[in-house]
Amino acid sequence: MTNNAQNGPGLWVVVPVKPFNEGKSRLAAHITPQQRRALNRELLTRTLTAINHAHLDAEILVVSRDTHALAAAKRAGSRTLPEESQPCTPNDTESEPQLNAALTQAARHAAAHGATKLLILPTDMPNLTAADVRTMAASRGPEPQITIAPSRDGGTNALMLQPALAIPFAFGRDSFLRHQRLAAAAGIPVHVVQSDSLLFDIDLPEDYRLVFNHHS
Known about the structure:
It contains eight helices and seven strands; from the N terminus they run H-E-H-E-H-E-H-E-H-E-E-H-E-H-H. The chain is of the alpha/beta class. It has helices at residues 2-7, 33-53, 67-75, 97-112, 130-137, 175-186, 196-199, 205-212, and strands at 11-17, 58-64, 79-82, 117-120, 145-150, 156-162, 190-192. Mean pLDDT is 90; it is low at 1-7. It has one domain (10-215): Alpha-Beta Complex (Spore Coat Polysaccharide Biosynthesis Protein SpsA, Chain A), CATH 3.90.550.10.
């Protein structure tokens, strides 16, 4: 009993955050560096707010290389994990090795502290709701299972793994298909969740204007 109390809830929600001045690099030619930093800070705030409003029995863990992001997460009441440095490969368009390495680090940390289920929520979804978070976190029984919310371009916007280290992370281009293949190879059933708010992420200038037109 004591160990369980120390380990806490089995669900951990992991929020990976790129440095505020690096995130959303595709928008760099369209908005100022200050706007980009403000956008990435706002996206983190919105994501943590949606998670908190979901009222889950869960630990919330923000993993980042950015001390500003980690400080903001701490102020919001989240656990934080400084991301271990990885070799930078900015030209890798198929996957995001730095993100996947950070998620692997976070998943191992969570599993070592009692996580039996992991929900990955990147900060790309500005319209994320508490209901989305609850839907993604829901389990259909205790057996191994995976829930995926695809992005509009075939990527993965949110991912739930039960157990926490069920499959390797493969975020990046075509990751919706890659995650499904990894699940199939592991013999784990996949549940796909689609909602407008989970599907919509900020990738292009028009996405930014749609959500943050008051900043333009």
